[in-house]
Write a structure and sequence with these properties.
With 356 residues, the chain is α/β, with parallel strands linked by helices. The chain is built from 15 helices and twelve strands. It has one domain: Aldolase class I (TIM Barrel), CATH 3.20.20.70.
């Protein structure tokens, strides 16, 4: 039993093999951005309102035209069978019970159709060298009932994740990229000094993707388009101009460019750049319901939560974790004097730089 969402990290560390734990927890390079995400979130302050007459805050929100129980989505995360044999299926079932959307990764370890049958789902797309396969994935996502397409644009190549390199990390034989089953051989080849997962993505992902490619994708599908991996407000504005209904301010959880700006620090300028023209979501570093409320107060429409739910998956506590997260969001709203998310958006925020 956990008392806080962040508690699952230590619980998972006690049961996971070190290479798997490092694969989930690690960042790129010297992990500067990994640390920056937490330092920046910790530095955000909220000025609570009082005498608001609130006893039960309303955490419901509308994301891309659908109402959910709280302003949270389960982030797209690869190879969840590394954490639990039921992997994405278990976490998707918990997301459905919690009333939040589940974002299916291109690199999910169960086929997207099996996952989408269990929860309201969006599909996350990596840009593949094989354009026919990429088109097939988009079509499969639509046919499976996914209600949005989330294109990750910050992985021309996988960041150099030194924990994986030092561990010569490779997927076990029973864990595959189930949506790319014919091109996963490299991910299983353990070679000293090499991350097999990085070798696989280098062979499968297209690095030279352009705005023109995004525009072509927008024209090819009727699904709402979410662009994930935005940090510069100029890119956010361009994504809107290309037809995106939402952007995700994200540095990939500190796993891509080491030294990149913390996501929460990039949020405000992106919100200013897009105005009311699209929804703005945030991910990277979120560890509590208070973090969610901070992001909303700074202009986010909703937040993607990743690693804490993988750690909860490792100890078979995903239902508990999502319930705990909702309680944390509710408590932070109540203590801030906020009856609903509109009130959260009106909170005054500040920074204490000494924490960073």
């Amino acid at each position: 039993m956990a008392e806080a969402l962040a508690d699952y990290e230590s619980q998972a560390a006690a049961v996971l093999p070190t290479p798997v734990g490092d694969f989930v927890a690690g960042g790129s390079g010297t992990e500067t951005t990994l640390r920056l995400n937490r330092a920046a979130l910790d530095s955000v302050t909220l000025t609570p309102r009082v005498l608001a007459g609130v006893d039960e805050p309303d955490t419901t929100c509308s994301i891309l035209g659908t109402e959910f129980a709280m302003p949270v989505a389960v982030a797209p995360m690869a190879y969840q069978r590394l954490l639990h044999p039921e992997g994405e299926l278990l976490l998707a079932h918990a997301a459905a019970a919690a009333g939040v959307p589940f974002v299916i990764s291109t690199l999910s370890s169960y086929p997207l159709e099996k996952i989408a049958a269990l929860a309201p789902s969006w599909f996350q797309l990596y840009w593949l060298r094989d354009r026919a396969l990429l088109t097939s994935l988009v079509d499969r996502a639509a046919e499976a009932g996914c209600t949005a397409l989330m294109v990750t644009v910050d992985v021309p190549v996988m960041g150099r994740r030194l924990r994986d390199v030092r561990n010569a990390f490779a997927l076990p034989a029973d864990v595959v990229a189930a949506n790319l089953v014919d091109i996963t051989t490299a991910a299983h080849a353990a070679i000293p000094g090499v991350s097999a997962v990085a070798a696989h993505t280098a062979s499968a992902f297209e690095p030279a993707v352009s705005w023109h490619d995004l525009e072509r994708l927008r024209a090819s599908t009727e699904l709402p388009l979410v662009v994930k991996g935005i940090l510069d407000p100029r890119d956010a504005r361009r994504a809107v101009d290309a037809g995106a209904e939402a952007v995700v301010v994200s540095n990939h959880g500190g796993r891509q460019l080491d030294g990149a700006i913390a996501s929460i620090d990039a949020l405000g300028p992106v919100v200013d750049a897009v105005g009311n023209d699209c929804a703005v979501l945030l991910d990277s570093g979120v560890r509590s319901g208070t973090d969610v409320v901070k992001a909303l107060a700074l202009g986010a429409s909703a937040v993607l939560v990743g690693r804490p739910l993988l750690w909860a998956l490792a100890v078979e506590a995903v239902d508990e974790a999502l319930g705990l997260l909702r309680r944390e969001v509710r408590d932070a709203m109540l203590l801030s004097g906020c009856a609903d998310l509109a009130a959260v958006a009106g909170l005054t925020t500040g920074r204490v730089r000494w924490l960073s």
